[in-house]
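// run 5 | inverse folding | seed 20
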């Protein structure tokens, strides 16, 4: 076990960003993320049950729901593996947070507060080549922002490749530290930014009591198991796709066979992931949400 907790586990993510004791860390991170736009001075954690969810889906997602001192709603979420319709799911969450602000009576005039979604992704969108994707509601022709009431920020961690000495902004220093935390021998940037001293204190494995240590260990094992299952399923899907591509390529031509093999490989990879999830007693609804397969297809596995 490393010197610092893994922030991409359920326990680690919420210990660093999701508790009153460390909420100044989340405030600092969000202010660095939104530098030049606004300043958050305080926030309050909200009940995640206010957000829509499906049975067992929390096993796949670590998230925090809070409101700022001026009323904006912010959803901060960590997702460790790809999910079918992830963009749409993020939009659904934010739309729900907007809609919940509605009030009955004749005096409410739709004066909603802004809703932000900040999504850490330990994977890439299929077409993603950017580390940070900032989504706003804007006019298609002019690019002028139409309203500031909804904002989505996607952070694709695999794209961030900077080393410690290459980080130029406080936001980059945050991302470097979070991405590498479980392998760090020391907490970087303490001399430059005092909040990293607090992060060192909060994230130190040695500071955990026995109960916290057990909770973290269970969370870490769940994280490692989920990654192993996902990686194994991908490899299985690749192998099946190659075999099918070769077989069919002999009949209808190598190039056409390659195309079919790629598509069939994707199909077999999805089935392999679903099969593994089913073997791990994950519910049909969550498997369907994660893979795009129908309940009938899942039951047939």
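// decoded
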């Amino acid at each position: 076990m490393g010197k610092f907790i893994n922030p991409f586990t359920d326990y680690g993510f919420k210990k660093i960003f999701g508790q009153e004791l460390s909420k100044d860390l989340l405030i600092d991170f969000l202010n660095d993320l939104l530098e030049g736009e606004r300043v958050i001075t305080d926030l309050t954690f909200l009940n995640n049950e206010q957000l829509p969810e499906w049975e067992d889906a929390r096993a796949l997602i670590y998230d925090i729901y809070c409101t700022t001192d001026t009323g904006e709603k912010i959803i901060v979420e960590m997702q460790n593996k790809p999910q079918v319709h992830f963009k749409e799911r993020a939009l659904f969450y934010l739309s729900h947070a907007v809609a919940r602000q509605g009030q009955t009576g004749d005096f409410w005039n739709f004066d909603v507060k802004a809703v932000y979604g900040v999504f850490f992704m330990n994977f890439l969108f299929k077409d993603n080549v950017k580390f940070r994707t900032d989504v706003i509601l804007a006019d298609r022709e002019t690019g002028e922002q139409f309203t500031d009431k909804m904002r989505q920020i996607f952070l694709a961690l695999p794209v961030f490749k900077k080393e410690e000495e290459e980080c130029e902004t406080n936001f980059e220093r945050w991302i470097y530290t979070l991405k590498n935390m479980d392998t760090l021998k020391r907490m970087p940037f303490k001399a430059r930014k005092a909040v990293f001293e607090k992060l060192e204190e909060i994230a130190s494995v040695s500071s955990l009591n026995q109960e916290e240590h057990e909770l973290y260990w269970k969370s870490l094992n769940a994280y490692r198991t989920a990654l192993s299952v996902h990686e194994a399923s991908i490899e299985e899907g690749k192998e099946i796709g190659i075999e099918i591509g070769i077989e069919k390529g002999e009949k209808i031509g190598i190039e056409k066979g390659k195309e079919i093999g790629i598509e069939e490989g994707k199909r077999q990879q999805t089935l392999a992931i679903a099969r593994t999830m089913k073997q791990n007693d994950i519910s049909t609804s969550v498997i369907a949400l994660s893979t795009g397969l129908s309940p009938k297809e899942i039951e047939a596995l």
